[in-house]
UniProtKB/TrEMBL annotation:
SUPFAM superfamilies with a match to the protein in the record: Triosephosphate isomerase (TIM) (SSF51351)
Pfam family, one: TIM
Active-site positions on this chain: 96 (electrophile), 166 (proton acceptor)
Residues given in the record as substrate binding sites: 9-11, 172, 212, 233-234
Annotated organism of origin: Chlorobaculum parvum
Keyword Cytoplasm: yes
Name recorded for this polypeptide: Triosephosphate isomerase
E.C. no: 5.3.1.1
Quaternary state and interactors: Homodimer.
Alphabetical keyword list: Cytoplasm, Gluconeogenesis, Glycolysis, Isomerase
Amino acid sequence: MRRNIVVGNWKMNNTIAESIELATAIAEKVGAAKPDCEVGIAPTFPALHEVGKALEWSGVKLAAQNCHYENDGAFTGEVSTRMLAAAGCSYVILGHSERRQLFGETNEVVNRKVKKALAEGLRVILCVGETLDERERGVTEEIVTAQVAEGLADVSDITELVIAYEPVWAIGTGKTASKEQAQEVHASIRGTIERLYDEQAAKHLRIQYGGSVKPGNAAELFGMPDIDGGLIGGASLKVDDFMAIVEAAG
Ligand code: PGA
């Protein structure tokens, strides 16, 4: 059986002090609720180390929102996987649509990052998803299949990988994909993984849904057969909303 995974993607929000406060509140509530799902949070780079320390006693995992594909060197403004691992991260989110759209990340760049992060011993949350225009043109499956296949080129072992399906039109817009729309794409991703790897890999892969997940829609989404938890943006910044979503997942 796949264990659901819920990760809060804090994006560019919260100072170090605010991050510690929110992380501590989440860790305490997760500790008390003991949900039957994996829980993680992804603060900004400057807060990672301190938040990691605040989470140490808890089972809540620390995730980064991005990384570079080299170990070190002349890459102004970038952070390497080696640094993230040393800061206490166990996960890194890669290929988020905001990175793809605002910072020009291609499937090829995402693939280099995925390979580097896995080689460093980090677990990867690989984000994929179509824009509104792509959905309206009927090319959702084609786009998502290419993001998965090209993002995983030359990756032989996906044991430490999670995929997050996040339709771009649903991120931060308040528009959630219906549970049927999401399930259809999740099933297609699982089929792609079966073709690229094998049946076992497809069966074990966890596929999160992301895009305006809220306390009111989490349970119905997570109840679908191929949806294994969520990647949560806006709602992960409020302890009670995030916890309601965590509890819906486990
Ligand atoms: P949202 O963001 O929950 O605010 O829509 C999700 C994400 O971007 O991961």
